[in-house]
Amino acid sequence: MGEQPFGIDPAVTTQLAREIGEIQSLGVQTAIVIGGGNLFRGLAASARGMDRATADYMGMLATVINSLALQDALENLDIPTRVTTAIEMRAVAEPFIRRRAIRHLEKGRVVIFAAGTGNPYFTTDTAAALRAMEMRADVILKGTKVDGVYTADPMIDKTARRYETISYLQVLERGLKVMDATAISLCMDNKLPIIVYNLRVIGNLQRVIMGEPVGTTVTA
Fold first, then answer.
1. Which pLDDT tens digit goes with each residue over 173-193?
2. What is the pTM of this model?
3. Which of 1, 59, 143, 186 is most solvent-facing, going by the fewest CB within 10 Å?
């Protein structure tokens, strides 16, 4: 949503598409999981009295809208892209089939995974970890609005210190807001590293891919 309070900022999707195109041109196979908080937050809605499962399904549909917006931005730059969704809606996206998604990656297409895991009570973080395992990914890159994992919220605590590396167990024990506990545990069990970096800094995505010390690495 960029600096807007709500919705999709076309300038942001275009810039993100350019950065993804840059790493695609390096031969990197790229799969993307997008949240839907700029449109609807299931957890917030359930806190206000909505049935949790209903709210979560609505949140999943919001991720489909974002996925289609990013697909459009990518294809405007001639980057072949496929949206696959965990909730079937054949008119707008492919159903998620693991082998087909792997084939898309092998053919050099960007694959966007929409609708989370398709199940309520699971976050977008958990969907990202699950899809990463299924695609046999080398790493999860978590793009956020801060430049890594801090000892406290850097927006509130000016003395907060950024970790260059941290272990999965330390993240869980210290209750750090990297990803939710289910996602962290899944990555820990499968030894999948996570790099948390600032998505808003232009060029950061390529710097991370090229191995530059950007953000925080969560590993064993």
1. 998 988 999 999 999 999 999
2. 0.94
3. 1
